[in-house]
User: What shape does this take?
Amino acid sequence: AQSVTQPDIHITVSEGASLELRCNYSYGATPYLFWYVQSPGQGLQLLLKYFSGDTLVQGIKGFEAEFKRSQSSFNLRKPSVHWSDAAEYFCAVGRRTGNQFYFGTGTSLTVIP
Amino acid sequence: GAVVSQHPSWVICKSGTSVKIECRSLDFQATTMFWYRQFPKQSLMLMATSNEGSKATYEQGVEKDKFLINHASLTLSTLTVTSAHPEDSSFYICSASSPTVNTEAFFGQGTRLTVV
Assistant: This one.
């Protein structure tokens, strides 16, 4: 069965510091992987996605993620965090056919000045 | 990118009444729409998948008679919470997929339902 694990429920970083959010998945085939961000009371915004090819993918707002098949991971990174990055981040895996998503439990990011 | 709009953004209703939430794909035809539910500080849980013109497929544990889903056109799906109770209070989000971009879904902004 497919599942997504985000081990860190909450992370606090200082503004300007680097960030890494962890995501591990369990899937029967090559997954489609996504990172979404959700601001309070808002919907989801796609940060980046991986389907195939280069395992390091670039997204919006300076985010990147690396797909590591051997570790079943798709960690999200940002070299320098901004206060506006404070939000909830969700990793998701999608089916190859259709667009049914399975989400991780999310990581809440707090940015301190 | 493609736009998905949900309406209303928030709604308060009395216990025992029914509430309808609309999900529209504004600039593309969505053959498939998905409904998710998000409890406070938790992840999104898939409730059901609806394909235009056919019955929705519900995930295990989701009451189909409680959460009525209709996908009557390629641009509109509705979720009706029937006989709502306070425990139905939640954040509901829809997503829609386009046959021209079948590896990505587009999410609505969500609907906050509060049942009092």
Notes: The CA atoms of residues 20 and 78 of chain B lie 7 Å apart. Chain B has a mean pLDDT of 90. The longest strand of chain B covers residues 90-98.
